[in-house]
Amino acid sequence: MTEEKEKRPDSVIRRHRLAERLLTDVLETKGDEDSACKFEEILSEEVTDAICTLLGHPKECPHGQPIPEGRCCRKAKEVIESLVTTLDKIGVGERVIVAYILTHNHPRLHKLMSFGIAPGISIKVHQKSPSYVIQVEETQIALEQEVIQDIYVRKSA
């Protein structure tokens, strides 16, 4: 690790937790701490910001620990629309792909998965009020906003 990186503990924590998110959510590997440690050591600030943007500026690592905010997060709040965002920010009629589900509520996670909502699945938003109605394959499902906010998606190509 470079001296400059050692002087910034938040930077080290941020790189590590973003590495965990990338390995878990995108590469779909098991929570291998050694891999995350090795990966975090080689990340430059520019690559770290790119990973953060790709993941939609996540707030927590897979273990529920907070990810320190970076320069890209502050900039995104002002101007940039993330590649990955929460389902509640998607317009009616849009089709998206589930990137990951972030919830501490395990029964909720199991319920969503039983509905077929999982990473890689296509979802279409039919309605946003009074409740959200989404289509997953051939099934329409009504969900509350607090549940919808746990579903992170990316626009389909």
From TrEMBL:
GO molecular function annotations of the record: protein dimerization activity; transition metal ion binding
Domain Ferrous iron transporter FeoA-like: 85-155
Organism, scientific name: candidate division WOR-1 bacterium RIFCSPHIGHO2_01_FULL_53_15
Gene3D superfamilies: 2.30.30.90, Iron dependent repressor, metal binding and dimerisation domain
Subunit structure comment from the entry: Homodimer.
Keywords assigned: Iron
Name this polypeptide is given: Ferrous iron transporter FeoA-like domain-containing protein
Top-level lineage group: Bacteria
Subcellular location: Cytoplasm
The UniProt record lists the keyword Cell wall biogenesis/degradation: no
Lineage summary: Bacteria, Bacillati, Saganbacteria
InterPro entries, per the entry: DtxR_MntR_Metal-Reg, Fe-transptr_FeoA-like, Fe_dep_repressor, Fe_dep_repressor_sf, FeoA_core_dom, Transcriptional_repressor_C
GO cellular component: cytoplasm
Main location, first listed in the record: cytoplasm
SUPFAM superfamilies, sorted: C-terminal domain of transcriptional repressors (SSF50037), Iron-dependent repressor protein, dimerization domain (SSF47979)
Iron keyword on record: yes
